[in-house]
Design goal:
heterodimer; A: 225 residues; mainly alpha; Fumarate Reductase Cytochrome B subunit; 12 helices; 77% helix; 0% strand; globular; B: 462 residues; Fumarate Reductase Iron-sulfur Protein, Chain B, domain 2; Rossmann fold; 3 domains; three-stranded parallel sheet; 7 strands
Chain lengths: 225, 462
């Protein structure tokens, strides 16, 4: 089972995820239309690029925008979740060793204690994200089962990873579960709401171009995100 | 009776059609007929497939239902934080639902959607600034209005308004002759006070081609005279076109894109014909949005620009004051607490916040200008934008919507509100009428004229 999970399943999941993201990313930008969107994208590539970069950059900084600052609770929970969700899969020691073996590459490795803190922060933040959905009327009204499903498949690799990490029960079982959940997540990325992991950049870039070109950027006004 | 005689899918494009619609007081029959109006689901779905592409499809897909947009919406805030007023909910439960059902929605759904599209969103675009994913719900509501208009589910006044543009190339039944006559008549009225004051009509190669809001012609002709006086004193080489003088677009509020195109093309034709260096529009927000910001795209201009450089009145006024073309007598500046309304359509949507603040520096004595909170790009809609002011059926909802602006104004302590936008000006007038908070409101032109330091050679001989 372990061989299968780290063999063909791993390669398939990674391939589907990367190819899926690439195809959808290209399709997104190919589908932009100056006439329908009413943004002269190609006439002002410089202004568009500046607006796009600014729009992405500002929103990636915790408390970097007016929006984040006016809602500090969600900002903390949101970044608590996403910082770990991005850093752990890429930079955990165990993941790097695995990548080295499989792909011959490895990234920078996180300190083990720091990695623990990040992982627990992800799980705790996920708890608050669920709580928000249950408690706040303005979030509850839109929340569907699908939203919980997305959260569940996002958090599963972290929870199973923690079980393996602390060797609760049988290590190899939790390790396999962890790998399985991770692969499930990879496959889900291009096809579900999880596509936001890359479409976030596309969508933010689009609105950034809109403001950079049409809504003030070319008048010399930087949008006060 | 699927298609009514008044309420149907056909745009109004004859004067008789407009008269017939207008004779239906408050649109009573119109809205009765709307209850029977059939939804053309095939057309709806086909239109969506052809026009709902990458950007909007992605917006609808990746919306995380996080609710961060809730607080950004003034309608959510003034309606007791009703979760049904959360921008993401409003669009997902209307446009999102239509797409999910592939256009197979019924009459009741469309009528409910009409209410959401015109009474629960003013297309102020504020929520777009607060969404981590960069989802601009205001843009989607603009799109949704187009779908509703195509199906005939549009508020009575806006069906008429769009029809006016189709027939008169103006938002009201003001003809080209009415425009020129009124402008000339108003200028004559002031000739004695300002020697040499004229209104140059159809002058080619002028520095400025000035365009207006038709209701200035019909209801506030003083505004035309004031514009003429200010250009005259500033020594501008200006003109008005006898055709293509209307800058506004109720068609934009209605979602009648074909009429939007007809309207802006009339102005662009005037630009091509008269070849001015610049076009300047009056103190109106949506007019600028329609003719300068969105219009080029409706007209199929790929570079997104009108045929000649086009600026808002506040940009010209700021420039005239900054360069000394217009001089203010410091002793006549405003010496009472005064606040400023930032119009969504050219502040949030074209970043002109500095121009209005430059003007305030010139016309308000130091220490008297008080900013609203929030302000500039983050300012709230006046409460009557996007056509909301003009829709009788949704008057009750509109009056509630005014509360946000009322409270913002009250918090400044100012009794004078400067509102360089027709829609904002109306909303602020209406909020005073409704809530009686003891404020006055004004456009910039009349205020500036009163405090001008006029050069001797432009003064009347004693």
């Amino acid at each position: 089972m372990h061989d299968l999970l780290t063999g063909i399943f791993f390669w398939s999941a990674l391939g589907i995820c990367l190819m899926g993201m690439l195809v959808r990313f290209i399709m997104y930008f190919k589908g932009l239309s100056w006439r329908l969107d009413r943004v002269a994208y190609t006439s002002y590539p410089g202004a568009g690029f500046k607006g796009a970069v600014r729009s992405i950059y500002k929103w990636l900084i915790p408390f970097g925008t007016y929006g984040w600052r006016t809602q500090p609770f969600i900002a903390v929970v949101f970044f608590g979740f996403h910082i770990g969700a991005v850093l752990i899969p890429l930079f955990l020691l165990g993941h790097n060793l695995f990548l080295k073996e499989k792909l011959g590459i490895s990234f920078f490795t996180l300190n083990a204690a720091f990695a623990d803190i990040l992982t627990w922060t992800v799980v705790a933040s996920a708890f608050f994200l669920v709580l928000r959905r249950l408690v706040l009327p303005e979030v509850r009204i839109m929340t569907t089962l699908y939203d919980y499903f997305i959260l569940a498949i996002s958090i599963a690799p972290f929870v199973t990873g923690l079980f393996a990490r602390y060797q609760v029960g049988e290590y190899s079982f939790w390790l396999n579960m962890h790998i399985f959940c991770g692969e499930l997540l990879l496959i889900a990325i291009p096809f579900t709401k999880l596509s936001h992991v890359f479409l976030f950049f596309a969508s933010r870039a689009q609105l950034g171009m809109d403001f950079g070109i049409k809504r003030g950027g070319m008048k010399g006004t930087k949008m006060a995100w | 009776m699927p298609e009514g005689t008044l309420c149907n899918k056909m745009p109004v494009d004859t004067a008789e059609g407009i008269t017939t619609l207008l004779s239906d007081t408050s649109g009573d029959t119109y809205y009765q007929e709307m209850k029977e109006l059939e939804v053309d689901s095939d057309l709806l779905w086909k239109t969506i497939q052809n026009t709902c592409k990458s950007r909007m499809k992605t917006w609808l897909e990746i919306c995380a239902h996080c609710g961060m947009c809730a607080e950004s919406c003034f309608l959510y805030l003034v309606n007791g934080r009703d979760p049904k007023q959360v921008p993401a909910y409003k669009i997902q439960s209307t446009l999102g639902e239509i797409i999910k059902r592939k256009g197979k929605v019924d009459n009741q759904f469309m009528r409910d959607t009409m209410e959401v599209a015109w009474a629960k969103c003013t297309c102020c675009n504020r929520c777009g600034m607060y969404c981590p994913h960069g989802i601009d719900t205001g843009i989607m509501f603009g799109y949704l209005r187009g779908l509703l208009y195509q199906q005939g589910f549009v508020p009575w006044e806006l069906k008429i308004g769009a029809g006016m543009h189709r027939v008169y190339r103006a938002q009201m039944d003001v003809t080209d002759a009415d425009f020129v006559d009124t402008f000339e008549w108003m200028v004559e009225e002031y000739e004695d006070d300002y020697p040499g004051l004229t209104v140059p009509v159809d002058k080619e190669g002028a520095g400025i081609m000035y365009t207006v809001n038709a209701r200035e012609v019909k209801h506030y002709p003083e505004d035309l005279a004031e514009a003429a006086i200010l250009f005259h004193i500033a020594g501008e080489n200006w003109t008005v076109p006898s055709k293509g003088w209307e800058e506004t677009s109720l068609a934009m509020f209605a979602g009648d894109w074909a009429a939007c195109k007809m309207q802006v093309e009339s102005v662009y034709d005037a630009m091509e014909r008269l070849k001015p260096k610049r076009m300047i529009g009056t103190e109106c927000g949506h007019a600028h949005r329609a003719t300068v910001i969105e219009g080029p795209y409706w007209a199929g201009r790929k570079n997104g620009q009108p045929p000649v450089e086009s600026i808002h009145y506040v940009e010209w006024l700021a420039e005239a004051l900054n360069t000394g073309k217009l001089k203010i007598d410091p002793s006549k500046r405003i010496k009472e607490p005064v606040t400023l309304q930032d119009s969504c359509n050219y502040i949030r949507n074209q970043g002109l916040k500095q121009a209005t603040r430059d003007i305030m520096k010139h016309i308000v004595a130091p220490g008297y200008f008080i900013e609203m909170s929030p302000n500039k790009e983050h300012n709230y809609c006046c409460g009557g934008g996007g056509g909301f002011n003009g829709i009788g059926k949704f008057r009750k909802q509109r009056n509630i919507a005014l509360i946000a602006k009322r409270d913002q104004i009250l918090a400044t302590g100012a009794k004078l509100v400067l509102a360089p936008c027709h829609n904002c000006w109306d909303a602020i007038r209406d909020l005073e009428e409704e809530y009686e908070i003891g404020i006055r409101w004004s456009f910039l032109k009349p205020i500036v004229i009163k405090m001008l330091d006029i050069p001797d050679h432009l003064r009347p001989e004693e």
